[in-house]
Amino acid sequence: MCILKGCDEDLKFLEDGKEGKSNVMGSRGMMLLWILRGIMTLLLWTCVLRLLTMGEVWGPRLLKSWPSCFTTPDMFPEVNMSSVPPKVLPPKRVYKNNGYLMVSCNGGLNQMRAAICDMVAIARYLNVTLIVPELDKTSFWADTSEFNDIFDVDHFIASLRDEVRILKELPPRLKRRVELGRFYSLPPISWSDISYYSHQILPLIQKYKVVHLNKTDARLANNGLPLEIQKLRCKVNYSALRFTSQIEELGRKVVRILKQSGPFLVLHLRYEMDMLAFSGCTQGCNSAEVEELTKMRYAYPWWKEKVIDSDLKRKEGLCPLNPEETAVILSALGIDRNIQIYIAAGEIYGGGRRMASLVAAFPNLVRKETLLEPSDLRFFENHSSQMAALDYLVSLESDIFVPTYYGNMAKVVEGHRRYLGFKKTFQLDRKFLVDAIDQYHDHLLSWDEFSSIVKVAHADRLGSPKNRVVILDRPKEEDYFYANPQECLPALDESLRIT
């Protein structure tokens, strides 16, 4: 029995030993397998990287041809990928960074647009890093839109990388510094030349590392600047400041709808409540409306002019043309009554009552709200700057552009249309026009006489090439750079010799 028991124990011992040996061998096998897998993965990635760096670029082409999970094969026509040029970024400009510039824009969309162009030029000249500008959220419109809600921020940064370094936000350590109040903030002096920024602002940036310019409208001079600064302002305005794809696509849709019915005119009818309250222009308003507009003017302390003689201001040409006056002027200029007129504006003060005469004279009046479905504009509601961006795009594409007040949008659109080939843009002489209208209404001029003098007075006010007016001691009265960026316009010198 003992012998049998001992044999059983020996047999069990031998079986346990074989199992242990098998486990050891299995572990070694698994280890070798993982090593082989690692080597194969490394070799595979080496091959891929080699393919990507070869002169023959079929590797990237193959990868690009893989279908996206956001598209279906029938969404786009077949494209020969070899004919599609790759997106090439401009080379990054390398310079010694003198510090960081933060800016807070003020005003409406086009006021801020011009300011952004100025601030990029200033940052470039001072060799500093610009933080993506903050847009105004406290003005009359109280629009909460951020920069990237209106403009393509990535395109803005990338397209200017050969000029200036632009960041979406401060680096963490400097952000903390700002949170602790260790920076300098000021409104720069209006209409300053570039020497003001190099002598006054740059030393502050070098001392504090971060400077915040808290007002940016009209802070750079129109004239007397280096040519490279003027050209950079244009580069920002006409290339880097691209609206978001959502705004661009909707703008193209509106233009496409309009062009299906033939030529169209964009009328920037600046007869909105804020404009009338600010200017004090109340012609045609009833007593209740006059009181409402006056209360609004006093409610905004930064609107400095409070007591206003509306009739005197109108005679001086400082009021926007009202809808009734606009109807008469468009007819006198010979505008076809059947042309489509796109109203680029917010809500017209007085509504249908004030628009009646304009509708009677030009029945084909349209607005974005009448051309588009409510769902198209849902994301733009309560965002006046985004709505203004849409009007801006349509204004650029119109056959004729007519602003009834020479404000920021009128000026910036005029300049952009010049840049696009001196597209027909009426620059209405309001002082002359209101006097002529009054003479016509008082029967001192016949219709033919009235129409004739209006046409003659505006024959050379159609956005054609001309020099900016320079007034050395009165920069506010000079022609605005963004209305006539003559340094950036093609073949302008030859045109100027003729005018």
UniProtKB/TrEMBL annotation:
CDD domains: O-FucT_plant. Pathway: Glycan metabolism. The keyword Membrane applies. It is found in: Membrane. It is a single-pass type II membrane protein. Its main location: membrane. GO terms for cellular component: membrane. The keyword Membrane applies. GO terms for biological process: fucose metabolic process. Keywords: Carbohydrate metabolism, Fucose metabolism, Glycoprotein, Glycosyltransferase, Membrane, Signal-anchor, Transferase, Transmembrane, Transmembrane helix. GO terms for molecular function: glycosyltransferase activity. Pfam families: O-FucT. It comes from the Eukaryota. The chain crosses the membrane at residues 31-52. InterPro entries: FucosylTrfase_pln (IPR024709), GDP-Fuc_O-FucTrfase (IPR019378). Belongs to the glycosyltransferase GT106 family. This is O-fucosyltransferase family protein. The lineage of its organism: Eukaryota, Viridiplantae, Streptophyta, Embryophyta, Tracheophyta.
